[in-house]
Design brief:
The chain is built from 13 helices and 11 strands. The protein is of the alpha+beta class. The strands form 3 sheets. The chain has a 5-stranded mixed beta sheet, covered by helices on one side. It has a 4-stranded antiparallel beta sheet with strand order 5-8-10-9. Strands 6-7 form a two-stranded parallel sheet. A hairpin with a 2-residue loop joins β1 and β2. α1 runs parallel beside α8, α2 crosses α3 and α6 runs antiparallel to α10. The longest helix is centred in the first third of the chain and has 20 residues. The two termini are 33 Å apart. The model has no long low-confidence stretch (mean pLDDT 96).
């Protein structure tokens, strides 16, 4: 773990006062992504950075329409925008529909614009642990909602127990359905890193220790996974973790397209960074989003029938776990533009 902690700390080191563009992009890669796949590529052109989808890193079972992939691009774009603004390179995030579509950051002019959200980038993590059950104040809930305000995206916060219990039941139902699908389990297992060496070598995936599980040798990890990863055990874990949380956040884009999924990622990332700045933890519980048959019930529950729920996150006061690894950013330049 010592080597792992040192490697991860280097990827999360403080941004220098006058960073080169690749170092700003390093901050973009600290964003959330499904299964920590980091499905993005960066292309530099004059006055612009495009964040392109890397379809080689698709997760076609859990994410057959690349919804999570484009949400991940939005998360990275928001980090990039915050980091650039903090170092005197403010700009705007937009959507370029060319090809498969991408998030496009265009540089403007201005002075440094530091923020609590920027400061939180290297400390943010999806904390898959039990929280302590304490509520979040009304003032902090308002701050979270304000931070996540992105045009084209709605956020619903659920803190009352009756609706939380109903969402818990949807999460358990979705988890049971996913774990009954051998293809889903194989895909998930493919992205699990059972020990620090695996996590360092790949720079991606779901490191077992970052989810509160022990590190295991290469040969033993997959065997114990097959023996212990059951719907019953996972459902009990989710029920316990949801009970320990302060609330749930549901993100819903106003349209179902790549542009709005990127916007959802930006809103989600801003929420997560604001939560981190407030000393709160968060983790995704997306089963009712990923199992299509459960989406209408979740949409009805939050008062937005016929809309597609995009993301579901729990939040509250909790511990810090070891951070996930990151790969070096893949950066390409347009003709005549140096990296």
């Amino acid at each position: 773990m010592d080597a792992y902690v040192a490697a991860v700390a280097a990827t999360r080191s403080e941004l220098s006062a006058q960073p080169a563009l690749p170092d700003i992009i390093r901050y973009a890669t600290l964003a959330a992504s499904g299964h920590n796949t980091q499905p993005w590529r960066f292309r530099l052109s004059q006055g612009r950075v495009d964040i392109l989808p890397d379809t080689a890193l698709r997760t076609p079972i859990v994410d057959p329409d690349d919804h999570h992939l484009f949400v991940s691009l939005g998360c990275a774009a928001e980090n990039l925008a915050l980091a650039a603004a903090a170092r005197g390179l403010p700009g705007e995030v937009g959507f370029d529909p060319a090809g498969d579509g991408c998030a496009a950051f265009s540089f403007g002019k201005g002075t440094s614009q530091g923020s609590a959200l920027f400061d939180a980038i290297p400390a943010r993590q999806s904390t898959r642990a039990d929280y302590d059950g304490r509520p979040v104040s009304a003032a902090d809930l308002r701050t979270l909602a304000a931070a996540a305000a992105v045009p084209g995206v709605n956020l619903v916060l659920i803190t009352d127990q009756p609706r939380r219990d109903k969402v818990r039941d949807l999460i358990v139902a979705g988890n049971s359905a996913q774990l009954a699908d051998p293809a889903f389990v194989r895909e998930l297992k493919h992205w699990i890193r059972f020990n620090p060496r695996q996590a360092i070598e790949t720079g991606d995936g779901l490191f077992s220790v970052s989810s509160g599980n022990p590190a295991l040798p290469d040969g033993l990890g997959p065997i114990l996974f097959d023996a212990t990863f059951t719907a019953k055990a996972e459902n009990e874990k989710y029920a316990r973790q949801l009970k320990s949380s302060a609330g749930l956040a549901v993100f819903m884009a106003q349209q179902e397209d790549h542009d709005h999924w990127i916007r959802t990622g930006r809103a989600c990332q801003r929420f997560a960074l604001q939560a981190t700045a407030l000393g709160l933890r968060h983790a995704f519980v997306n089963q009712p989003v990923e199992v299509a048959s459960l989406r209408p019930e979740l949409a009805d529950l939050v008062g937005m029938p016929r809309r597609r729920p995009d993301l579901l996150m729990r939040f509250g006061h909790g511990p810090t776990l070891p951070f996930s690894a990151r790969r070096p950013a893949r950066i390409a330049a347009a003709a005549g533009v140096a990296t």
